[in-house]
Amino acid sequence: MNCKICCILLFCSISYGIADVLVTLPNGKVRGHVLESPGGMKFYAFQGIPYAKPPVGNLRFQAPQAVENWDGIINATKTSNRCYSVAKDTDDESEDCLYLNVYTPILESENNTKLPVMIFIYGGGFNDGASAYNIYGPDYLLEQDLIVVSFNYRVGPFGFLSTGDEVVPGNAGLKDQLLALKWTNQNIGLFGGDITKITLFGQSAGAASVAYHILSNQSAGLFRAGIAESGSALNIWGFLQNPRPYGFELALKIDNVTVTDNSTLLLNYLLSVPAKEIDIASTKTKITVLPVIEKEGEDSFLTKEMYEQLESGDINRVPLLIGINSEESLGKAKDLTSYHNELVKLDSDITLLIPSDLNLTENSNKTEIAEEIKKDLS
Fold first, then answer.
1. Which of 77, 90, 83, 22 has its CA nearest to residue 48?
2. Which first-to-last residue range defines the signal peptide (predicted)?
3. CB atoms within 10 A of CB 48
4. pTM of the predicted structure, to 2 decimals
């Protein structure tokens, strides 16, 4: 058989396989493709399914809106755009980034089996991250007869800018996550998933996000359990107490523009600026944008201090597995000299282990408290 015939047969085989992997959603049809795990298990991958309207124009900085119906077939066979990130500058960054991925060993049409579902939330300090297959591939989990859903959510100013009032309430990125959870509940059955067995899991800021969904009444009933890897809603980096100054600093960094202390004027200015300019300016601000406590409202995601809400018991009572990744700080090995100096500093002053927000009194025995922290970390 000559090479030309081989190529024709290969093309026909791939085309036939792709044409058969179709799922009809309430919004329209999507085409997936077949991939293979390291263990040799074939599975269906649907990458780049839109779950919200593109958050552009007047939707910038605002809560996401559900995706509209589409005609034809969406080709969900490759990684979608990633959301603008403070930490990275890549060619695939875009405001049009609210897409999700479904990886499943089965489809609804194959049999009556329904598999448990795991929804993953990436980390990145709420300023970075993406759900790309080459970063967070689902292969090993799928080999345990699970379905994995991952999705992009807005980070940095696009996801967490807040004016501290109703003009830009904030937490748009967390509301993206919420919409992705709702989408999964409404659609995962079509991919062979059991909506009564949805587990939400995430790492770092993704873990803090899992905890936020446990705290938020908006997420009630959307998942049955959570797994938080190296993060919590109680982390000092988990939220911003006073979000208002960030937006005005951001405007100043864009083009040395000073906006008077007026939320509407600030929003109008930031809506007039190309997304790329906002992205570049976000790398120059001293304030780091994060989730916020919102004012009470119908669409508010977080309205109470986290610890107080936990203490009151006004939470979504689901099982939670929480811990720390064993190699969480492995990245510091890139600069061993700096890492060594940091460890030497901790050895010389063990009280540096005490979190800055522990609010110790002047009479507290800091050395004794630090020793207890060290013991827990050992």
1. 77
2. 1-19
3. 19
4. 0.86
